[in-house]
Amino acid sequence: MLILGIDTSCDDTSAAVVKDRKILSNIVSSQIKIHTKYGGIVPEIASRKHIEWIMDVTENALSKADVALKHIDLVSVCHGPGLIGSLLVGLCFAKSLSYASKKPLIGINHLEGHIHAIFLEKDYPEFPFLTLIVSGGHTSLYRVNDLNSYKELGRTRDDAAGEAYDKVSKMLGLGYPGGPVIDALAKEGNPDKYNLPRPYLNGSFDFSFSGLKTAVKVLLMKLDIKGKNVAEDVKKDIAASFQASVVDVLIEKIKWVVSSERLNRVVITGGVAANSELRRRAQMLKEEGIEVYLPSKQLCTDNAAMIAVSGYHRFLRGESSDLFLNARAYLPL
Ligand code: KG4
Ligand code: ZN
Question: Among 39, 51, 93, 126, which has the highest number of CB atoms less than 10 A from its own CB?
């Protein structure tokens, strides 16, 4: 089965062609350069860029896969959660393609897409398994009982981990998105230099990263430095200390949830799962008998192939959407 996937939930315009679970093409056109100068995503600009780019990106995905639209069997589109204006662009485009080409349409939850990214890899877990989705908008733990059956075990009460990376990066004058820059800087810093809080929340499976972000702010005030004035060495140590705190919390909660659910298969996915320190520490969980599954870095961050494969799984179960499908900024799994 040939599936055309589309994701425009945030600031990446993405289209992919997937054959069952095999990626034929996965084009991600990032708007980062445009938003960087504003220090974060400007929703209105994101929607406008999606409108400009969606056609080219989709044509690119089809031609790279060497597939014509008439050969596509299913149009699978992300319809939430995300920025409403951005979602609407991909959704309206997908609906038009589906209507004009008389191909079935299916709407997919972005979070389900992040989980199903693991099914694009050769190695994926048996059901049931646990998932940590850790991205710019979400930090949540789920028990995945079957292809489309999820039980939320915990979620962030305030900022998502990726959001904390982005905000700390801004404080250090490192720009947007913060994750990859802090990841790179932290490699040269001392993670023990600054003792930042680990918000474990007394055994709860929830998360909270806004206090950690404030702790970095207070640290900068104590050191009497601001944004661009931070010395390179200090930036490296703050990046490493901040990252150590985030990763400690994420890894520790995985251990708790594994023991509480008596389930030792874990998928870690979402943009922050591209983080090298988190990936290193996650691999170490294997020594404790935990099976760890990480999508490749390109499949951890936003992409349309994950939406295509989720659509494939739902379509095989007899599901499809009609043209009344709506975009939802808030859409629980
Ligand atoms: O999944 P994603 O691409 O979009 C959302 O659904 O949010 O995640 C984007 C988030 C951003 O906050 C970005 O800073 C973070 O993922 N990120 C990283 C890394 N690469 C991206 N965070 C830490 N380390 C990275 N290497
Ligand atoms: Zn995402």
Answer: 93
Q: Could you tell me which residues come within 8 angstroms of residue 313 by beta carbon, excluding any fewer than 6 positions away? A: 116, 119, 147, 148
Within 10 angstroms of residue 117's Cβ, the number of other Cβ atoms is 28
Give all strands of the β-sheet with 74-80 in edge-to-edge order: 22-30, 12-19, 2-7, 74-80, 105-109
143: left (phi over 0), alpha (psi -120 to 50) or beta: beta
Residues with CB under 6 Å of ligand 1 are 10, 135-137, 162, 165-166, 177-180, 183, 270-272, 274-275, 301-302
* Integer CA distances (angstroms), 226 to 168, 195, 197, 223, 245, in order: 12, 19, 21, 9, 21
CA 143/CA 150 separation, integer angstroms: 6
- Pocket residue to mutate for ligand 1, from 14, 165, 276, 330, most atoms within 8 A of Cβ: 165
- Ligand 1 probe mutation, 301, 303, 307, 333, most atoms within 8 A of CB: 301
pTM of whole model > 0.90? yes
Query: At 146, is the secondary structure helix, strand, or coil?
Result: strand
Q: From CA 246, how far away is CA 321, in angstroms rounded?
A: 38
